[in-house]
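Q: Convert this sequence to structure tokens.
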Amino acid sequence: MILTSRWKKHTVKGRRYSSCNTQTTAGFLSESSRRKKVFMNPNMTPLPSGYTHVQHTFEPVFDEHSRILILGSFPSVKSRENQFYYGHPQNRFWKLMAQLLEVPVPQSIDEKKTMLLTHGLALWDVIASCDIKGSSDSSIKNAVPADISRILKAANIQTIIANGGTAFRLYRRYCEPVTGRPAALCPSTSPANAAFSLERLSECWSKFII
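A:
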């Protein structure tokens, strides 16, 4: 039997959030199924064409010296293929971090990890699993949040940054009520956010990456 559960929408009021730009996406659900026989619930809506249920399969980057936690929404198709964050060649994340930290742009996964950890940065995504159409954040359904407290318990995180509106919205909805920690919203480094040049991204992100 498939068991389904639905998250109710709610709004956290009475707080201020630092932001440069904001984007939003749809609501979310979650579901689980037994390993062997699966009996379809006649009341369950099937996934639309093109959707795939995907689990986040690679680990966060952090250590006990991390002080800034950067959260994306969910890995793109290319990132899932590479098994590391921001794998799309047109995503500006690694160029942006290198520019802000005044270091060469890292190429390998090991170089990227070293750059982050050397400068006290931690990296993860808000979503642990979801139904998604390709790499489209706006298509995300049935989101299950990651256990962000895992990093907060291990490191003295002073600032949490959401990379884009979807990550911010998901964090605010599912994670902040658990962690009690607000996130700062920075504009997405995704190529889909073409309105922000690298220079404009740097201007916003530099307020938090110091």
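The CA atoms of residues 172 and 180 lie 10 Å apart.
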